[in-house]
Amino acid sequence: MPRARLHAIILGGGTARRLGGVSKPDVNYRGRRLLDHVLDSLGEAVTGRIVVVAPETVAVPDGVARTLEEPPFGGPVAGIAAGLAQLAAAVPATLDDDLVAILTCDAPAAGRALPTLRSALTSEPSRHDCAIGRDTAGREQYLLGVYRIAALQRRIEEWGPSELAGAPVWKFISALDIAVVDLPAELTRDIDTPEDLRPN
């Protein structure tokens, strides 16, 4: 059986209130945009398409698609749905057997966790719906995970499009069969405040 493709959806459409309301994907971190750090961290793990969920003002490299939930600032669940719709429009073959990484633009090294997460999802005897990271403080990171696209699409259909905006991620994901993977701090570190931008 051929190896399933791994796509990626990077969420970058939030309000970044704790950073003064700036465009979070465009925030300069160690001389480069946060979004560029995340894209580079994907390495060769992503074998399919990459979609950035962000406003049109956020530049993306050639070959990377961009979309935005409607209405804007609808939250991560609506962003995931918009990203999946963009993937479905861009990929000629069915996505039913494919995987998708769900990441945020403010976790610069998150893509480096994808091989570990994919292995946890696909190597288990039981068929998990997703594998998500857990940080060193014991917090489960629903937006640092590898998901079966069919499982996400099933949840979207169960909820209905009108219920996605503002929905809590944990509630949306909680019905899935989840594998939780402990990850080192450098892979789960995110940038939320001006203090987080300072060199360690």
Task: Give structural notes.
- One of its GO terms (molecular function) is nucleotidyltransferase activity.
- It comes from Bowdeniella nasicola.
- Keywords: Transferase.
- Residues 8-152 form the MobA-like NTP transferase domain.
- 26% of the residues lie in helices and 21% in strands.
- The protein has a single domain (6-197), classed as Spore Coat Polysaccharide Biosynthesis Protein SpsA, Chain A, CATH 3.90.550.
- The protein starts with 5 loop residues before the first strand and ends in a 12-residue tail after the last helix.
- It has helices spanning 34-41, 76-90, 114-122, 149-159, 169-173, 185-188; strands at 6-11, 28-29, 32-33, 50-53, 65-67, 99-104, 130-134, 140-148, 178-182.
- A hairpin with a 2-residue loop joins β2 (28-29) and β3 (32-33).
- The strands form two sheets. The protein has a seven-stranded mixed β-sheet, sandwiched between helices. A two-stranded antiparallel ribbon has the order 2-3.
- It is α/β, with parallel strands linked by helices.
